[in-house]
Amino acid sequence: MPESPEVAELASFLTAHAAGRTITAFEVLLPKAVKTAQPAPGDLVGRRIDGVVRRGKMIDIEAGSAQDHLHAIVHFGHDGWVLWHDTAPGGSRRAGDATLMARVRLDDGSGFDLTDAGQWKALTVHVVAEPGEVPAVAKLGIDPLDDDLDDERFAALFATVLGGRKKQIKALLQDQSAFAGIGNAYSDEILHAARISPVTHAASLSPLEVARLAHATRAGLRSARAARVGIPPGELRAAKHAALRVHRRTGQACPVCGDRVREHMFSGAAAQYCPTCQTGGEALPGR
């Protein structure tokens, strides 16, 4: 699943390559991807792209005209992404292995595809006048990549974010209404760095553990963001996977202590963790 460090670099790439260009076509190949009737994707045609920004794990393509601005909010789901073309293919010919959901053409002949490689095709597009009209944007929680957020403020806000939620810490980190931009992979990486078990109930964390979590979250995501700068969209996911220390590393040696990375299944999801670093040497139930 795309997460904030990679989505941030994707937004930067699209801004660098598409800002100032006029949209000449917004072709929807899988209608179920579009979640708004009015405005429609066709209303973006003739508008100039002002820029692309990240909102959590989504991108916001802002396109303006002399009268007003519209936002195309793209939520990638689990397997969605963008495929850039210096010269957009003719017709609706697919380029790449994923399903072509929509194709955006620009006035210089370039363009990009919105694709989804997953079974359920979960990528969605909302075209709105204001980003807050999209429910997934309106409910976004704290974004650890925000420049105004430091470790102390993160820790101070933790109790507010927790509220009445009775969640294990891994689930809370992935809750977009609590922390925006974190998914399955980076939640594993953060908890490993913070030396916290993924099944620990968030409300039971000590002040020291919350402080470690704050630092691991911000430092981990910021380091990943810096490492992705300049990497083209087609290589971002591979770069992410190559840098992971425990996620998708079941059976391999922990890079910190040398113990074997294990996998724990819960609520239909999986967590990878190191028993020595995170659970006091105790192995959680596996598959």
Automatic annotation (TrEMBL):
Alphabetized Gene3D superfamilies for the sequence: 1.10.8.50, MutM-like, N-terminal (3.20.190.10)
Family matches, as PROSITE patterns: FPG_CAT, ZF_FPG_2
Record's keyword terms, sorted: DNA damage, DNA repair, DNA-binding, Glycosidase, Hydrolase, Lyase, Metal-binding, Multifunctional enzyme, Zinc, Zinc-finger
Domain Formamidopyrimidine-DNA glycosylase catalytic, residue spans: 2-102
Acetylation among keywords: no
Pfam families for this protein: Fapy_DNA_glyco, H2TH
Annotated InterPro entries: FPG_cat, FPG_N, H2TH_FPG, Ribosomal_uS13-like_H2TH, Znf_DNA_glyclase/AP_lyase
Segments forming domain FPG-type: 245-279
Reactions it catalyzes: Hydrolysis of DNA containing ring-opened 7-methylguanine residues, releasing 2,6-diamino-4-hydroxy-5-(N-methyl)formamidopyrimidine
Molecular functions per Gene Ontology: 8-oxo-7,8-dihydroguanine DNA N-glycosylase activity; damaged DNA binding; DNA-(apurinic or apyrimidinic site) endonuclease activity; lyase activity; zinc ion binding
GO biological process, any: base-excision repair
PANTHER family the record matches: FORMAMIDOPYRIMIDINE-DNA GLYCOSYLASE
Similarity-based family: Belongs to the FPG family.
Protein's name according to its UniProt entry: Formamidopyrimidine-DNA glycosylase
